UniProtKB/TrEMBL annotation:
This is UDP-N-acetylglucosamine/UDP-glucose/GDP-mannose transporter-like. It is found in: Membrane. It comes from Sphaeramia orbicularis (orbiculate cardinalfish). The chain crosses the membrane at residues 20-37, 49-67, 114-132, 139-159, 165-182, 194-215, 227-252, 259-280, 286-307. GO terms for cellular component: membrane. Keywords: Membrane, Transmembrane, Transmembrane helix. InterPro entries: Sugar_P_trans_dom, TPT_transporter. It comes from the Eukaryota. Signal peptide: none annotated. It is a multi-pass membrane protein.
């Protein structure tokens, strides 16, 4: 119960501006790394997304270790208790990564997009059961609007695939659980946001390295012929650094906001990218059904953002009302 009280106290401290800026930072970082990763994996045809992720983890470890040694940041030293404190985040991260890759291959892009939106509902449910939160009806309606819009957008490309549906729903569960437990671990004494980032990457990096070696991805990455190109090396290193920035922005957004807000921000960012794709890029196939669905999605996201970032707790509220206010943040 004391941990829950500590969580509630920490969640009311940041101002609305800080919460909003952390969400914008996450959305911007997510968009930029999408562009950089697409350049590395598509334009330069780098053969291993797993090795690219490995580079991002190593960058995270190196940057945070140097910052810790130089006394720029502080977090708990490694000991036997760290694994228990960080568990089950590493397992959830690995499960999220594996099911995400597998489901991408099994489903069409529209169906992948709509089923990924169920992550938002699952995050809300897990916050209720794990973080003991409650949600006002207006916020629930905005979440339902986002999911409904995604379903409308994909309704013209419905194709049932039992294996694909199973994988993507498992991916939703892993993503939602990872978001909620990240929020919970941020309140763990000694870890903080830097400790969560560092030890999560440190625990994952060895299994990822072994997996890439076992599958042959590591050999393909080492033998990649564009390592002699300065432009490719720059883009690869930029992707590694942006991977660290993205992971930091996720933790920062979860620290100042709720896990649900972080998930919604990611979903709204994807809808915004789809809107941009209508006018830029030339690979978007326009249809009124898809456009209307995207618009419904965006309206739900804007509604959620308005309710979240314009919420001002009142000192004269009842205890039940305070609980609703706190959870929105």
């Amino acid at each position: 119960m004391s941990e829950n009280n500590k969580y509630l106290q920490e969640s009311v401290q940041p101002s609305g501006l800080v919460k909003f800026l952390s969400a914008v930072f996450y959305a911007g970082s997510s968009f930029l790394i999408t562009v950089v990763n697409k350049t590395v994996l598509t334009t330069f045809r780098f053969p291993s997304s797993m090795c690219l992720g490995l580079g991002q983890m190593i960058t995270t470890i190196v940057v945070l270790y140097i910052a810790k040694v130089s006394k720029t940041i502080q977090f708990q030293d490694c000991d036997r208790g760290v694994l228990l404190k960080i568990f089950p985040l590493p397992l959830l991260y690995v499960g999220n990564h594996l099911t995400g890759l597998a489901s991408t291959k099994k489903l069409s892009l529209p169906m992948f997009t709509v089923l990924r939106k169920f992550t938002i509902l699952m995050t809300m449910i897990l916050e209720i059961y794990i973080l003991r939160k409650t949600f006002p009806k207006r916020l629930v309606y905005s979440i339902v609007t986002i999911v409904l819009g995604a379903m409308v957008a994909a309704s013209s490309d419905l194709a049932f695939d039992l294996e694909g549906y199973t994988l993507i729903l498992l991916n939703d569960v892993f993503t939602a659980a990872s978001s909620v437990y990240t929020k919970k671990k941020l309140c763990t004494e000694g870890l903080g946001k830097y400790g969560v980032l560092f030890y999560n990457a440190l625990i994952i990096v060895i299994p990822t390295f072994l997996a890439s070696a076992f599958t042959g991805d590591l050999h393909k990455a080492v033998a990649f012929e564009s390592w002699v190109q300065t432009t490719f090396i720059f883009c690869f290193l930029l992707s590694c650094f942006m991977g660290f920035v993205l992971m930091y922005s996720i933790v920062l957004c979860s620290h100042y906001n709720s896990a649900l807000t972080t998930t919604v921000v990611g979903a709204v960012k994807n809808v915004a990218v789809a809107y941009i794709g209508i006018f830029v890029g030339g690979d978007y196939l326009f249809s009124w059904t898809n456009f209307i669905g995207l618009s419904i999605c965006m309206s739900g996201g804007l509604m959620y953002s308005y309710l979240t970032f314009n919420d001002n707790p009142s000192g004269n509220s009842t205890q039940g009302t305070k609980e609703l206010k706190i959870q929105v943040t």
